[in-house]
Specification:
14 helices; globular; single chain; about 325 residues; mainly alpha
């Protein structure tokens, strides 16, 4: 195949340039200028404090003294590894994550699946499931503290009406964490619900029609089409939920303040107590650094799993 060129021009000179493939110098500078305000704020309020936290973790920094204080080396980290209260708070955080992550993933998938198949009034179900998520944590805590109020709360009356003895929802160390998990599931379910609903809408309807023609029932369609097609969405929901559960603080601090007997104190509340109650900012920075490494490890595992899924596809 020959290329027609203008008289007096070579083939290379006469060939029209393809737009979008040639390099256009100078386009990186406007992009950097547009990103500059965000980058400046990110460096100032995120990266800068994080680096300063790591720096303070090597000193005996205190809120009652100026400056970084005396150099401590790795003493703060060694104390954290030997601190029983720190490990208990970490276990409370992990236990809360175990209690909340499975229902928040499974219920969000089931409810999104049901809402996606509703033909009329679909907007109502979307609003009903997502509405609690936009409520502030203080409002959610006050609502459920009233529900859990002994002898006066709605949940206690329902339990006693069935003939059971009302447990100490927030006063029993064996029940308090379950109560906080129930509150969190009701509150944050809407976010995962929306993610799954968006993923369901991206699945081509032709796949379900072809499966129905081949004789596949609703359960077979969910098992063979819906779940595999939502693999990436499920991995995203799972890692976001695990990270969010690991960072729990608001509802626990407002509803129980870590009690009773520190049975619901998470890692972030332990860091808060050490830093702002005991004024040991250096030690609190060391614990914060260890907790950051934990969350970073969870994120790294998700990245590896996502890459493996992409390679298989």
């Amino acid at each position: 195949m020959t290329t027609l060129t203008a008289p007096g021009r070579t083939e290379a000179e006469g060939a029209p340039a393809v737009r979008g493939t040639e390099e256009r110098p100078g386009h990186g500078r406007p992009a950097l200028l547009m990103m500059a305000p965000f980058l400046a704020l990110y460096l100032l309020f995120v990266i800068g404090p994080a680096l300063y936290m790591v720096l303070m973790s090597f000193f005996d920094t205190s809120l009652v003294r100026e400056g970084l204080g005396s150099f401590a080396g790795l003493r703060n980290y060694a104390e954290a590894f030997g601190d029983r209260a720190f490990w208990e708070s970490m276990w409370h955080t992990v236990w809360f994550t175990i209690l909340t992550t499975p229902p928040l993933v499974v219920l969000a998938f089931v409810l999104a699946l049901l809402a996606d198949r509703v033909r009329r009034g679909r907007w109502f179900f979307r609003l009903a499931f997502f509405l609690p998520y936009i409520l502030p944590s203080a409002v959610v805590a006050l609502i459920w503290m009233w529900i859990y109020t002994p002898e006066l709360g709605l949940l206690g009356r329902f339990v006693t009406a069935l003939g059971f003895t009302e447990p100490g929802w927030l006063g029993d160390p064996d029940v308090a964490m379950w109560s906080l998990a129930l509150t969190t599931v009701w509150w944050t379910l809407g976010f995962n619900f929306v993610l799954y609903l968006a993923g369901l809408q991206d699945i081509p309807r032709d796949l379900y029609e072809a499966a129905a023609i081949d004789g596949a029932g609703p359960l077979a369609q969910i098992r063979r089409i819906t779940i595999p097609m939502l693999a990436r969405t499920t991995s995203l929901v799972l890692v976001l939920q695990v990270i969010a559960s690991l960072k729990v603080f608001d509802q626990m601090y407002i509803m129980t303040s870590g009690g009773p007997n520190f049975s619901t104190r998470p890692a972030l509340e332990y860091i808060y107590d050490i830093g702002f109650t005991d004024f040991r900012v250096g030690y609190a920075s060391a614990v914060s650094t260890l907790f950051f490494v934990l969350v970073l490890a969870v994120s790294a595992v998700w990245v590896l799993l996502t890459r493996r899924q992409e390679q298989r596809l």
